[in-house]
Amino acid sequence: METLWQKVHNEEDNKMHEYFYDALPHCGSGGCAKVMSHAIRNNLVSHERGNMFLAGLAMAANPTKETVAHVLELCEEHPGRTAMLTLGTLIHKLCESSPQVCNDKDEENPIARAEQFLLSGLGARCKGKTPEDFENIIIRLKAIGNAGRPVAAENVLLKCAITPDVPVNMSIAALEALRRLPCNEYMTNQLLDIYGEFNLDVEIRIAAYLALMKCPSAVVFKRVAEILKNEVNKQVGSFVWSHMTNAMDSTEPVHGLPQAEMMKDALNGMKLREFNLNRLRFSRAWEGSFYSDILRFGGSAQSHLIYHPSSFFPRSAMVNVTVDVLGASINVLETAARFEGFEILIEQFFGDDGYYPDDSIMKMFNLKPHEERDKEEKEVNNLPKRGRRSRSIHDDINKVEKHLTKLHRTMDTRKHHPSGAVSVKMFGNEIRLASFDDISWLNDEVDKINMIDILIALAKGGKKTFSKSMMFLDVETTVPTILGLPLKLSAKGTTVASVELAGKFDIRNMFWGKMSFDVKGYVKPSAVVDITGRMGVSAMYAEAGILVNSSLYTVTQIKGNATYTQGEMLKFEVGVPEEPVQFVNISSSLFATLNDEKLAIDGTPRRIEPAPCLNMTRFLGIRFCSQLSVPLGYRDYQAPFFPFSGPASFSVSMQRTDPSLRNIS
């Protein structure tokens, strides 16, 4: 692999570099991990390419001890976010497939070394002194959450969650890191205590509740309902009530339905205290699910929106998508975001003492962040007026209060400067984490920007092509059957996408001379997505099954120009392509497989093949056409359901019908 790296790296063909770099992370072997680790440590690739290497490596289906060892070496030298998250993901995958490897406590075992490395940075209670310390602790917590190990981390994580004077986001990360650790009575009791402590922060209590839902039991549900009955915080009450109400209506078969039945049995007809409050001001959970017993297929989606009493903006949000197929539940995607401190900026800009004193923004939310201050202000304004002396004292109070309010906002801004983070999980593993600190370098670069140079460069124009290829899906699972033979299910997905850009953006005369601008260019995006699903029964010496191959292809081109000169009308033109443009082409093919051989399946003979067109020659000189071809097997009770009933295709295209047409203006 090192020889191949050197050979490709010495080539001058950039496209070869791109394809090789895109394919390398999906290798997953120790040799590939060694090459990528070496390239990152020696700055042979850009920072973003290094992150792509690591994120792709986290998607590898069968990592080895050597892979973990090389990523661990990289983390010890460069403990970046993506590297740490990948380390945790690789530990989890390896320990799931080979538990005996992870249970080896030998000091030379890379798994044991990696676990010790992750734990060593937490200390006793996750205390840090600098922002860099806090950042390092949070990323280690998230890596432990990916790994689900070691079990000894449980006590440390619970202590981190309730340690005073640590940032709230760190306490939340500690509670979220429990998600893959095995449940036990001590853990659930500690989480119930955190959730039931009314004096704790809203977000910490909600995070403790969500961690409890990973360990469902009748005892947990009863205790949660009892705490909800005496709840004093409407934000927590609204979230927990909506979450439990949705959970009891879930139809998701693997986790949702069993938990719903358990919850109903535990509550035994007891009605939850209702917190059906304004959805625009109070925290909320939502869930939607469906499942077809005939198709053995379904899915569910969950979302959380959490508010904080000190802010009129949502503090955090989460969206999760899960697919259920043939008895397996696949957590496809989860994205979460948390933001803090933006209400201070809004007040600074649009408040009474801001740069743009306009109360329309504040009125839009119908809620003010400094509610206590407003209450005190009303009390002062409602004081009885007893002659001139009372009015003078009242004016003095208002004047002093105004200055104190301004000072309070200044201090509050320093304490709660805007911060935020966005994370992405795929198949249950957190693979990317981005925060506002990633763009903090702009603060030092703003003064160095030369607008004249930028305008000249834009006026000259240029051409650029961006391309990316990746394997976004690689999953495999085995389901036991009553025949005694395992049913293997696998799915692989690859994509290649490119965007070609060209044009110029000449707006120099908008700032001096006669006002005018000239903008020309084109955008040509294209993409190919290929998904292959396989279902088969595996015997000792043979494997037979069905293979479905689906692909999506799209290529479009948008070409145009806009010109304007002072005193004249704006001219805008869109180019019409000479060749037919296929906006989208989707096809699905079906094969019977025996070992490595494939045989195409024609499917049911009855098909529906409409090909309608929308003729707009009279108005635009173009025509839009679509074509559909699908097997008509629903009338045949012996035929399987789509897509197993035969090949199918669908396409949408546009073609020019007026040969003289060049532009539409």
Walk me through what this model shows.
One of its GO terms (molecular function) is nutrient reservoir activity. Residues 371-391 are annotated as: Disordered. This is Vitellogenin domain-containing protein. The protein is α+β, with helices and mostly antiparallel strands and 665 residues long. A hairpin with a 6-residue loop joins strand 2 (297-307) and strand 3 (314-325). The longest helix has 29 residues, at 387-415. The chain starts with a helix and ends with a strand.
Summarize the structure.
This is Vitellogenin domain-containing protein. With about 675 residues, the chain is of the alpha+beta class.
The helical percent reads: 25-40%
Number of DSSP E strands: 19
- Poorly predicted ranges: 364-391, 407-415, 441-447
| Spatial gap, N to C terminus | 55 Å
Query: In what range is the share of β-strand residues?
Result: 25-35%
Any idea what the radius of gyration is? 30 Å
Mean pLDDT: 80
The largest sheet is:
13 strands, antiparallel
Number of helices: 22
Shape: globular
The chain-level structural class is alpha+beta
Pfam families: Vit_open_b-sht, Vitellogenin_N
Keywords: Disulfide bond, Glycoprotein
GO molecular function: lipid transporter activity; nutrient reservoir activity
Biased composition (Basic and acidic residues): 371-380
